[in-house]
Design brief:
7-stranded antiparallel sheet, 16 helices, 424 residues, alpha+beta, 3 domains
Length: 424
Amino acid sequence: MKIIDNIKSKWNVFFAPKKDTIQEASPQLYSMNVSPAYSRPSRIHLSRGNEMTILAGLYSRIAMDVASVDIHHVVLDKKGNFKDIVHSELDDRLNLSTNMDQIPYSFKLDLVLSLFDEGCIAVVPTETDDEPDADGNYSVYAMRIAKITKWYPSDVEVEVYNEFTMMKERVIMPKNDVCILENPFYAVMNEPNSLVKRINRRLALLDGIDEQAGSGKIDMIVQLPFTIRGETKQKLAEERRMALEKQLAESRYGIGYIDATEHITQLNRPIDNNILKEIEYLNTQLYGELGMTQSILDGTADSETIVHYENKAVYPVLRVICEGFKRTFLTTEAIRDKHHSVMYFKDLFKHMSIENMADMCDKLSRNEILSSNEIRSGLGYRPDDNPRSDELLNKNIAHDEQTENPGAQKSTKGSKNQNEAKKV
């Protein structure tokens, strides 16, 4: 009976009653097949030429840095500080298994790449429960990244992958049930005249010049020993040109001959233009907008450069993701009454050297910010069994009974002084 009840309580986006109009579809769904299945249909691919430019490497680097950050469903205290991780279905989707085809890291990687490529995407909960649970949380059993194809006042039409039919289907869903995420760098990457679009256009021009230079054309001018002003002379010049073309075309090694009075001017030399300089200038501007430098790409950046890059490129994307998930997958009661939220957690020891790491661990432990086991967990070591390793204590100071009970020490001194006064 419990299994039957669980099956009845689940809802799937692809098995909902199908409607024919937008009015009938909200809050129900309307499905329509788009295209047949192809190789790995669930994988998100870059479009609009972004996959063929230098921007693909830039997008991939930011996406990998975002995907390496842990995102958890958490509970906060009354002051808004982190208290504990909530072991819910939403947290399992973010850290255990997102859907049938993707692990959380791959899901976040595709999410960021799709966000940069499309500018605005949707995260569709393909399998959920009928209603929130006892804690007021929105239980999600599977989620997929979807492309938004149409916008309506209270609904959106999304193109999402259906793992049962292995096809992408268009589904109309209410905006309240879909996590809509917008690229924080939309003005830089997705506007029609943004930096990225201008770079793509100039790269296309540069590719056209390269193709023309390597097309095999000779590009030369033949100076004939007579002036070409009348129709008769022009006809003779045309015949001479065709004769030269025939010589080169029919020759096995591309060898021809000209008259002693004729001269040849070669034109297939590289023509000086400012396209490459403009591309380099626009790349510098784009790197500045994203806090990106060449040292970050080749792995030689110092800690200050990495912190600046993460503050400008990584954390804005993480904040958009966390706020979108919090708005969609947590109810108002869970946020206000239960103090639930969605937060990201950055590994502080990731980009630090051994010397800086040792200095930071000493300061965090000495100032009673982190316990020894919390520091050991961040470094990848198993917790220590000593109970003092879980306490916030300054290990550089001796903690004896008198130090731990200063009130008792004061009372002992006070009674001693009273006894001496009585003797006097």
